[in-house]
Amino acid sequence: MDFKKLKEQYKLELLDNVLPFWIQHSQDKEFGGYFTCLERDGAVYDTDKFIWLQGREVWMFSMLYNKVEKKQEWLDCAIQGAEFLKKYGHDGNYNWYFSLDREGNPLIEPYNIFSYTFATMAFGQLNIATGNPEYAEIALKTFENILSKTDNPKGKWNKVHPNTRNLKNFALPMILCNLALEIEHLLDEKQLLNLMETCIHEVIDVFHRPELGGIIIENVTTDGELSDSFDGRLVNPGHSIEAMWFIMDLGKRLNRPELIDKAVDITLRMIKYGWDEKYGGIFYYMDRKGFPPQQLEWDQKLWWVHIETLISLLKGYQLTGSQECLDWFEKIHTYVWTHFKDAEHPEWFGYLNRRGEVLLTLKGGKWKGCFHVPRGLYQCWKVLEDLSTKVK
């Protein structure tokens, strides 16, 4: 495999194709923040602003400024988004709304914990870029709010009747694995290590189930037991695979090779579990007992699932030398670049039907923003860059 050629492919796609698309089309020059509902050619088709996607874009351009190039255009893009979020995105106590209208008026209450996690990531990374202590303070206060909500992330907006079927979800400990390293510079060592260990325990010892063949499930009871219900049977292969590169990063940070090996093993198990043998690609949702999933979009092929898989496979190969990771990377790389890349316009399609045909022409919406494609391209570029220097 030509790592040098692949490195250039991912790097150029990021710098020359994807980032200019978001810089040009997503910034709201009049009211601040970002448009994320963008058609195939970048035309805005809805002006509502979703807080988690606003935070992700602030984070993206801050991170690129910090790690790739001190490009003023990137920093300006991040700062204007952050200032919009600071002014309109929360209730005054850093409880972050789910969505706003274009001008910044709240539309949906702060029921979604991921508005908080991506605000924390955004302001933490922008603090590194600018040195502005106010951004660090916002990140820390929001992080404290997240920790206070771990037992009931939706708070008073939780629709579930208490004490009948109390479940906890994989998504929060998963994202905290990543968040821990994102705000490492803001936490003291003891707090950081406690957070890391808690997240690793939840992911590896609670949601990962050896008795189910080593897969990860999305929901367990608050006691860590299996639930035979729609939610309790739910498997999201992409979520599990994405979490594994977070675990690999933690294993590297903590110098725990056995954790990396475990993450690589789970990555490969989940890819094989979720792979569509008939049409290729990875299913979005599955039922661990093989029953019909309640999600009608269960068999769609989504951009983020496949891009996160590429990251986990490349990191798995980089850290362990697993040939199986490299073989799967080659297979999924081909699928991704054949199906998700738009040959006529910048940025990538997000939603394919089971056969791999484009289902929606959008480049951004309520759930797809400036995040998985550019982050994935960046991560793959950097791992391939490292691999290309090691090949004689």
Give the terminus-to-terminus CA distance: 12 Å
Overall body shape: globular
Structural classification: mainly alpha
Radius of gyration from CA coordinates: 20 Å
- Count of strand segments: 14
Total DSSP helices = 13
Low-confidence stretches: none
The percent range for helix content is 40-55%
Spell the H/E element sequence.
HEEEHHEEHHEHHEEEHEHHEEHHEEH
The amount of beta strand, in percent, is 5-15%
Mean of residue pLDDT values: 97
Q: Sheet with the most strands?
A: 3 strands, antiparallel
Strand arrangement, major sheet = 3-4-5
Layout of helices and strands, plus pairs?
Blueprint: H1 3-25, E1 37-38, E2 44-46, E3 49-50, H2 51-67, H3 72-88, E4 99-100, E5 106-108, H4 113-130, H5 133-148, E6 167-169, H6 171-182, H7 189-207, E7 208-209, E8 215-216, E9 219-221, H8 230-233, E10 234-235, H9 237-253, H10 257-274, E11 286-287, E12 301-302, H11 303-320, H12 323-339, E13 351-352, E14 358-360, H13 372-390
Antiparallel strand pairs: 1-2, 3-4, 4-5, 6-9, 7-8, 10-11, 12-13, 13-14
Helix pairs in contact: 1-13, 2-3, 2-4, 3-4, 4-5, 4-6, 6-7, 6-9, 9-10, 9-11, 10-11, 11-12, 11-13
